[in-house]
UniProtKB/TrEMBL annotation:
This is SPW repeat protein. Pfam families: SPW (PF03779). The keyword Membrane applies. The keyword Membrane applies. The chain crosses the membrane at residues 12-29, 35-53, 65-86, 92-111. Keywords: Membrane, Transmembrane, Transmembrane helix. The lineage of its organism: Bacteria, Pseudomonadati, Bacteroidota, Sphingobacteriia, Sphingobacteriales. It comes from Olivibacter oleidegradans. Residues 9-108 form the SPW repeat-containing integral membrane domain. It comes from the Bacteria.
């Protein structure tokens, strides 16, 4: 079910990207290199994709929305697994897991076509 509109998705991209970049400092894991850099790199990628995507929040509009959504799912999987892949799960894992799962859900539940008003079959627009 596609219940997130492209407009809402674009806003979430910017919010999540900024929060990922700030998370190591805000959540106190800036002393753990794998945790710190995986969050910051993911945040930069999210912001970069948001700026380059053909959606309501895009600036350059060169990446098709369908490609953006696939990248959200891939990035979400990698971010969710990063605590175990990069061996820092014994110190911190919840921020990466939560945001990773959120990214997967956003990628799967966003309407790829432009919506006006309520997203098709849903409530977020």
């Amino acid at each position: 079910m596609k219940f997130i509109s492209r407009r809402v998705h674009a806003m979430l991209d910017y919010i999540v990207g900024i929060l990922l970049i700030l998370a190591p400092t805000l959540l106190g894991f800036s002393h753990i290199p794998g945790a710190k850099y995986s969050a910051i790199i993911a945040g930069v990628l999210v912001l970069g994709m948001a700026l380059l995507t053909r959606h309501e929040g895009g600036v350059a509009k060169v990446i098709p929305m369908s490609t953006h959504l696939v990248m959200d799912v891939i990035l979400g999987i990698l971010l969710a697994l990063s605590p175990w892949l990069l061996n820092f799960s014994d110190q911190v894992f919840l921020p990466h897991l939560i945001v990773g799962v959120f990214s997967i859900i956003a990628g799967l539940c966003t309407a790829p076509a432009s919506q006006h008003g309520v997203a098709q079959g849903g409530v977020l627009s």
